[in-house]
Specification:
alpha+beta, Beta-Lactamase, two-stranded antiparallel ribbon, about 20% strand
Length: about 260
């Protein structure tokens, strides 16, 4: 009987948190009309089972990917906020250069997260939601190289029907695209040299790596750096191992979250 009561209280807490972004112990205690010690025990049990996490210094609790899996599978916002974003921040503290997470949306690459405002080496400050072309960006090239053949064909067909400009000219050059994909897959990354799409045109380069989930392209992990700061060889030696390490960690944690471990 005690077990059933504990289960009911735990489910109540999950139901309440499902409608809130985050709650403290005191807030939960008031909501379910229980002593704070009891509410604390319920929340901590759910943390130990992997269904909740303490999300800030104020001790607020929020749902994790695992509890969201119970309802509708992996939440498309959770992969970013709970796994990729914290590791991107960790990476930015190591490399100092600005880090971005880009994902495909409506035949463009959409900026989902960036550390621009936190990097002392940023020349540009972009806002989340910024849309960039696929064919002329490192993140877009990575996407084309690692998405499915069907998805790639659809994207390129759509770009072929757009008004021609410098960002989509390659859409009508399958041979060039084929070589680009071959090179990107061989290297495991793409580099955009002296990007013209910035507040300081031609002064920054970008390197992007694919983040793969369940065998499918999820997003691109990108690092921008000042063009004259290093050669491509120096970039590979100084930063590529760290970028790969953090990217691999992202993929491992995404896989773990999928399994509800």
């Amino acid at each position: 009987m005690h077990t059933i009561r504990s289960l009911r209280r735990g489910l109540m807490a999950l139901e309440i948190l499902n409608s809130r972004k985050a709650m403290t112990v005191a807030e939960m205690a008031r909501e379910i009309v229980l002593p704070r010690t009891t509410a604390f025990r319920i929340l901590e049990n759910l943390v130990s089972f992997g269904y909740l996490k303490r999300s800030d210094q104020k001790g607020r609790y929020s749902l994790t990917i695992r509890v969201r899996n119970l309802a509708s599978g992996f939440n498309e916002d959770a992969w970013l906020s709970e796994v990729v974003k914290p590791l991107a921040i960790e990476l930015s503290k190591i490399v100092i250069w600005p880090i971005s997470i880009m994902s495909p949306r409506n035949v463009r690459m959409s900026l989902r997260f960036t550390t621009d405002s936190d990097s002392p080496l940023s020349l540009d400050y972009y806002n989340e939601g910024l849309r960039l072309p696929i064919l002329s960006t490192a993140s877009g090239n990575v996407y084309l190289s690692y998405c499915s053949d069907t998805e790639r064909d659809i994207v390129l067909s759509a770009l072929c029907h757009e008004k021609p400009n410098e960002t989509n000219m390659l859409a009508n050059s399958p041979e060039t695209i084929g070589k680009l994909i071959e090179t990107t897959r061989k290297n495991g990354f793409a580099i955009n040299i002296r990007s013209p799409r910035s507040n300081e045109p031609g002064k920054t380069n970008t390197i992007a790596l694919p983040i793969i989930r369940n065998g499918h392209f999820l997003a691109a992990l990108a690092m921008r750096y000042i063009s004259v700061a290093m050669t491509t060889s120096e970039l590979k030696e100084r930063y590529l191992p760290t970028l790969i390490k953090i990217r691999d960690k992202m993929e491992d944690e995404l896989a773990t979250a999928e399994l509800g471990m």
